Amino acid sequence: MLLAVDCGNTNTVFALWDGTRFLGTWRMATDWRRTADEYYVWLTSLIRFREVEAAVDEVIISSTVPRVVFNLRVLADRYFGCRPLVVGKPECRLPCPPRVDEGTQVGPDRLVNAAGAFDRHGGNLIVVDFGTATTFDVVDDDGAYVGGVIAPGVNLSLEALHMAAAALPHVDVTKPQRVIGTNTVACMQSGIFWGYVGLVRGICERIQAERERPMRIIGTGGLAPLFGQGDVLFDRVEDDLTIHGLTVIHAFNKETA
């Protein structure tokens, strides 16, 4: 049984993969101080609650927070008796290496998104991931990650707006009924929602113009379904794209071992 761990700046997702399907997926806040023992107690409690029969003997990790990886390695070694694959480390091979400037370190989440998207949709893609940052990953015809764009995340922008303008409240991210708001909350919601619709559309159009070809656009991340509703931004929305990418990379490493 494979345990796939996707550690982002805000949340960490754990998923059990039996080789054909996910038996369970769980999410917790990312905290580098959390110990391997805490991970194990929390995870096994949720597994028992779901009544899943799971004997984990393989682990793969993708983490954008380097300090978290140590305790996740300890978790794999101490409780599951295995050495984990860590995306971005030399021992973890990719189906197609990235083609970027020499010396550039690509975020593991972006490499995993490229692998997962290519496996499901083939090449010539733009993957838009709504996380702490909003990232655009360009996947070439052969599945290689060839660069992209990083913009501030939606919730990060809202927090910055609230912090810099004391009179502006915290608001939920939602699609407003009208573009023109008639109160402060509606104005902020319209600015965030339609502002990011414009950002996504504009950047994707510029990427396609630069590459001189049409490209399929895949949305992922927690807010992708929200920004995909009522406005044709994406060809597909894939909630589990990153976790799926981890299973693809793990399978590739087993096949080429």
Automatic annotation (TrEMBL):
This is Type III pantothenate kinase. It comes from Rubellimicrobium roseum. It is found in: Cytoplasm. The keyword ATP-binding applies. The active site is at D109 (proton acceptor). InterPro entries: ATPase_NBD, Type_III_PanK. One of its GO terms (biological process) is coenzyme A biosynthetic process. One of its GO terms (cellular component) is cytoplasm. A monovalent cation. Ammonium or potassium. Pfam families: Pan_kinase. Its EC number is 2.7.1.33.
